[in-house]
Fold this protein.
Amino acid sequence: MAGRLNQSSPYYIDNRKRVADLQKAMEREGLDAYVGTRPRTLSFLLDAFIPWRSYVVIPRTGEPILHTFIVDATRVGDETWLSTDNVRAYAPMGGQDPISLITACLTEELGISRGRLGVEDGIATYTAEGNLSHYEYTQLEAALPGWTLVNAHHLVDELSIIKDAGTVARFREASRIVDVGQRAVFEALSNGGWKHLTETVVGGIAALAMRKEGSVSEWNFAGLNEISSGYRTALGACTPPTTKKLAQGEPLMVDLHSMFHLALGDHSHNYLIGPATKRQRRHADNFVDLVQTVLDHYKEGATPSSLAQVMMDRAESLDCSDFLLPGCEHGIGLFGDEWRIGHAMDGPFPYWTNPDHVYQEGEMVICAMQYASLEEGIGFRYENPILIGKRGCEPLSKYPLLIEEIL
Amino acid sequence: MNEKLMYLGKSWRDEGLKLLQSEIDPQKMHNVTTSMVDIYEHGPEGKEFFLFLKCEDGKVVAFETGEVPAPEAEFIIRGPYSVFASITRGELSSTRALMTGKLRLKGNMAKAVRLAPLADRVNKVLSMIPTDYREV
């Protein structure tokens, strides 16, 4: 029992209420049960780190039943709020494969011989989204005659979009931890310290500092702490670190990730390893200006397209729009919920952010901006979880927004 | 004892209970409290049989055999009579039988996996009984 929190904890989340809310939504949509497979669903409902392929069966009433990989079932049982009996293991053994277990759970244990089963299907840029595979779908369909499988992930997505107090508190702490990592990197770089460092070592310095503060993972699947320097800062929005040495006159991008009770810290800070040229300084000043401009416009009622317009208008006035990647945010929630903005499938491209999604108070996104001049070998990235409010937003990382010249 | 006892018969069951209670150290059974029933499909004369075992605090308190219906148990293992006979003879481990799909388990695998060595201990004791495994 490592991870359960009592109600007096600022990080407490009422997980039973989340399940009850989902069950009410299931009833409204005529679902007799729901099988969740996405990490975002498992995190949101079970409040535990569940990385292996898992299936949570949610009946109309009563406690969910999780089927997870045998190698990890005992740990998950120790960390989730579910009763131990409701954390089951699957294994390559007769009657213990996932399809047999889900089928027996629905038809024998819950006693539902036919009905409508909510499942999670779709597409995501995020590889680890965890939708039901075609194989699983066809196997379940064959094993459950009389059942209709219905894509119903929107129920969980809708419930998870407005962040409750416990979730926000966890994100604030994850962001505080990331800021400690950023300070540790700054100290390591200062006074010529950068001369002895590679990108991978910078990532490690940050990781150690954040782990000391209680982070349990540099959760990002695109390279953990993403560190890039020199021309690599201009290669786009995915920069797993390499053994490249930091070098004089080059930019450095430090994109750190922490995890605290499944909440995800994510803050990218940028440097110029001096001496910087006037042109580099100009790019850096432009970027800081653009980020501040966009942050100033996040509030209830704003939309991704209105924010992108603000960003591009300002970039035009600064004469740097050629260097800006379109878009200024991505979604965020507890572990596994990392990409899509909003929950409805009402945009021009299903499963992509609806540019006209209207932000509400209590939503969170990662404000994410990428600036790159590949020809000049320079780029910057800003990422910070922000909490949308009625009249503005709260950037959760409090690390100063500036691009220092390090000597 | 030289006389062979009929597999799953009354005398075999009585001998099994006696051996299980005398040979199995509750501490080696981790003082577990659980119950398990094996359902033997396609047995002699096409019948289905069961073997039921109940432990309390590691001590075997019930051991029953007979034709189905079987008593309720925490774990149900189902498979052909011939496979269970191979396990009792010590020719096949119950874990391998499950891993190859020859047997099907119902019950919480997370707990069952910790009980697998205990099941092997039970089978080892039962294999000591001179048994007439009826052909099927």
About this structure: The longest strand of chain A covers residues 263-273. Residues 127 and 347 of chain A are 21 Å apart (CA to CA). Chain A has two domains: 15-159, 165-406.
